[in-house]
Amino acid sequence: MRKILFGVSAATLALLYGLLVLILLIVFEVAGVPLITALIVSAAVLLFQFLISPFLTDLTQRLFYKTRFGAEIPDYLREFIEQVCREQNMKYPKIGLIDDGAPNAFTYGHTKNDARIVLTRGIFDLLTEEEVKAVTAHELGHAVHYDMLLMTVAELVPMVLYAVFRVMINSLQVSKVSDDDDSKSAVAQVALAAIAYVLYIVAQYIVLWFSRTREYFADQFSVDATGDPEALSRALIQIGFGLSTHAETVEKGKKIALNANSTNALGIFDSKASKSLTVSCFVNGEIDKAHIKNAMKWELWNTWAKWYELNSTHPLISKRLQAIDKLAPQYGKLPFVEFDLQKPESYLDDFVREIIISLLPGIAFLGALVCGAIFWYTDKTDKLFIAAALLILSAILSLFKFRFTHPNKEYHEANTAGLLGEPKVSGIRSIPCELEGVVIGRGDPGCIFNEDYVLQDETGIIFLDYNQPLFILNKIFALFKSEKNIDRHAVVKGWYRRSPVPYVEMYTMEVDGRTVKCFTYGFGRVIRWIWLGLTVAALVAAFILL
Question: How many Cα atoms occupy the beta-carbon half-sphere of 204 within 13 Å?
């Protein structure tokens, strides 16, 4: 594995720095712009950032996430980490704990010998001992593979390419006001700026691919360290999909609900409903694999999943599960879940339809601006009326798009497992739903500035997106009101989406007889109707005046 990892890393970095050398040669030969100072400064800034970033992150973790470094961890985990460190000839990492029920784990640092690994309480609450070790081994894998250092080196390339682009643009702006403007030089600089920007985009996607590749190797390290591919698969399903994978997790969820607040005498969870949900998710104490396959459908079938993965630092969970399952025979294990469902239809038409619905209002508005500009310079009256008509069309299409993204508010009772099985959703298309469960933590675990939540029901956990029309209102809520809703029973209404993380855009949340409401939906509707009224009034005024 180490040889393959080295080969992939070397080839990727060679490609990235090959692009960088190419653009620099063009700069020095064609434009004659002295960029060496800018490049040295950029490299120095990145190096300085790399050197101090772990210490700044330590400070951020303590201040804003209440991370406790040096806190006691279970003996089984400490002994496992010590074992891996001995095998890999690395120092014992600095362990941080965040007191938040949402499961999360990450690592940062310079090298494997000064790595920090941060775990949330949710990792220990929701996962078994073997799963906790598998997640921790994945983070140790990043440290052992020097991913922090290599990603910093890779990210230098798009940073420098963007600096070249900005220098060319600034040079063009200066040349416009100079007396000795050379048109040929200006054309060369425009071409160079365009090339630099295109290479910057290409480099960004190469870096994202490189990051996704590192995740696969960290998964493989975890499997090698634990000898238990199923443990990592279960952990990924719970953290990535939010789907419970063993009955113990459901029992923990019930205990959280019963101890959440003083309303347990009112019947927070109906015992009959709880039993029926548990039976629907588990067979003989183990999860019905059909639920996992349902959760994988969206990632393996929906065209949006490919687009989101292309722009993500992490591979899709389903692809990681399939990669882990390929390792299982090496350890005498069977694949945890074999995805054998047949795709019933092509989802490409839905993808294209949603793209069109999303873009049409903007296209109509852009057309209105073009026609308005033509009228401004030519005084052609017909172009003014066309511009006004396109503005009205843009407003109508915007209303249609909003109605499409926020279907009628007939919220249907649902659970996490059921929603994860819906393949026809995206960041644009949604499903109105009503969920009942316990708020176990913040969307960004432990962060005092994060207004979002994580909800646990009988079948798993799901992200709740709290959003008000003004950004400052979100932060006020996060700082002064959010905490009191954690570890409380809640009924949430909103719209279920995937992009690619499954989440619910909140409309209302009832907690302890109180209703928390997001006004973004109502605000969005009002603004669009006002916009339509103004455009109609503008058209009427144009007819009257002209």
Answer: 12
Model confidence pLDDT, tens digit, residues 381-432 = 777 788 888 999 999 999 999 999 999 878 999 999 999 999 999 999 999 9
Residue 500: is the preceding peptide bond cis (ω within 30°)?
A: yes
| DSSP string computed for 116-162 | EEEEEHHHHHHS-HHHHHHHHHHHHHHHHTTHHHHHHHHHHHHHHHH
Secondary structure of residue 313 in the 3-state scheme? coil
Q: Which of 247-251, 256-260, 313-317, 403-407 has the lowest mean pLDDT?
A: 256-260
Backbone angles phi, psi at 399, to 5 degrees: -65, -40
Tell me what the mean pLDDT of segment 495-519 comes to: 94
Structure tokens of 357?
């619905």
**Taking each helix axis from N to C terminus, what angle separates 348-378 and 303-310, rounded to the nearest 10 degrees?**
70
CB 312 within 8 A of CB 207: no
Q: Is 139 a catalytic residue?
A: yes
Domains of the chain listed by start with CATH number: 2-226 (3.30.2010.10), 348-405+527-545 (no CATH)
Residue in the block written with tokens 């009942």: 436
List pLDDT tens digits, range 315-349: 999 999 999 999 999 999 989 988 989 999 999 99
Residue 261 has pLDDT above 60, yes or no: no
List of E strands, 402-459:
412-413, 431-442, 453-457
Roughly how many angstroms between the first and final C-alpha of the chain, as a whole number? 75
541, two tokens: 């005024």
Cα distances (Å, whole numbers) of residue 445 to 85, 121, 466, 499, 535: 27, 9, 14, 19, 44
Strand positions, DSSP E, 67-112:
68-69, 94-98, 105-108
Read off φ and ψ for residue 98, nearest 5 degrees: -110, 125
d(CA 396, CA 365): 11
Find, among 336, 304, 297, 287, the residue nearest to 318 by Cα: 297
Q: Which of 129, 130, 139, 458 is catalytic?
A: 139
Q: Rounded to 5 degrees, what are φ and ψ at 75? A: -60, -40
Other Cβ atoms less than 10 A from the Cβ of 398: the count is 21
230 neighbors 127 (Cβ within 8 angstroms) = no
CB 242 within 8 A of CB 291: no
- CA dihedral of 112, 106, 223, 298, whole degrees rounded to 10: -150
